[in-house]
Amino acid sequence: MTLRVAVTGAGGRMGRTVAQAVLSDANAALVSVCARQSSDLVGKSVASALGIDIPDLRVGGTLDLSNVDVVIDFTLPESSLAYAQQCAAAGVPIVMGTTGFTDEQRAMLETSLGAVASCRAANFSTGVNLAYRLLELSAKVLGDADIEIHEAHHKHKIDAPSGTALAMGDAIAQTMGADLSQVARYDRASNREPGTIGFSVTRAGDIVGEHTVLFASEGERLEITHKASSRSAFATGALRAAHFIADKPANSYTMADVLGLS
Ligand code: NAD
Fold first, then answer.
1. Per-residue model confidence (pLDDT) at position 134
2. Given the CA of residue 39, which atom of ligand 1 is nearest to it?
3. Domain count of the fold of the chain
4. 26 C-alpha to center of ligand 1: Å?
5. Does residue 77 have a cis peptide bond before it, meaning omega lies within 30 degrees of 0?
6. CB 150 within 8 A of CB 225
7. Which domain holds residue 138?
8. Which residue, judged by its Cα, is nearest atom 8 of ligand 1?
């Protein structure tokens, strides 16, 4: 059955990439595309706005959910929250890749999404989701090592450290029976304390996304690195999640569920 997909954030880097991924999927159809209301793209044909070959579809200023099986959203926390509420009210499943939510926004999101099938991930790439498992295993064996997480992204990224770096830290902290908020260190102005997880960040150029976790012990170091070279890695994963949740009962699914890693 063809999956009918709505894509938000048409003017954004991920919105465009997701739209392309949907068009390249023989089992999916791009049926609705929207951008923020003030965007120049609103009202334009999707073909001209996104430079993709698709007739008879215009960019909307609001999310049109008629005849949609699933929404894929990579925008901003405020707009994602509004789209989640709209999907919940209409009973339409949503895949959400937006990062940078405050604790308050996250709580509101979780309340809204309780009513539908959803999949949220700070990183939809297959490699990163596999890396979470490798990190849990490493933390189990090397929990007393000094652990540092470094991430690098393009200069336009708003939130820091990345949602992926925080999710990696969370996977390690949970394995060690710790709370990330207690063990995370975001600056190096003081000496290293045992049991802490250090974070460092690079924002430069057009780096798509790189994460390295270092486990350093006396005499040896283990580094687990993931490098995304194209946004299509995230878009493909999000689309895979969309196929997975489209006919599932209301629940919050993870990429581990989608990839059979849970
Ligand atoms: P971007 O700045 O290129 O795009 C953001 C989009 O949001 C734009 O299209 C913008 O018009 C839209 N937008 C802004 N305000 C809006 C509003 N009020 N209503 C509707 N739309 C609005 O950013 P990007 O690089 O495409 O990233 C988008 C989000 O996805 C970020 O939070 C980023 O961290 C996240 N991201 C997640 C993954 C993942 O795998 N989970 C991968 C890459 C990016």
1. 97
2. 11
3. 2
4. 25
5. no
6. no
7. 126-228
8. 12
Nearest atom in ligand 1 to 121's CA = 41
Are residues 55 and 185 located together in one domain of the fold? Answer: no
Based on the fold, state whether residues 216 and 244 are members of the same structural domain.
Answer: no
User: Which residues touch 256 (CB under 8 Å, ≥6 apart)?
Assistant: 129, 132, 133, 262
Report how far ligand 1's centroid is from the alpha carbon of 261 (Å).
27
Instruction: Tell whether 142 and 224 lie within a shared domain.
Output: yes
Please report the pLDDT score of residue 160 as a whole number: 95
Cβ distance 242 to 72 under 8 Å? yes
123 Cβ inside 6 Å of ligand 1:
yes
Q: Which atom of ligand 1 is nearest to the CA of 122?
A: 41
pLDDT digits (tens, 9 = 90+) for 89-136: 999 999 999 999 999 999 999 999 999 999 999 899 999 999 999 999
Looking at the structure, do residues 224 and 236 belong to the same domain, yes or no? no
Sites in the chain below the pLDDT cut of 50: none
**H-type helices in 194-259, by residue range?**
232-245, 255-258
pLDDT for the residue 179: 97
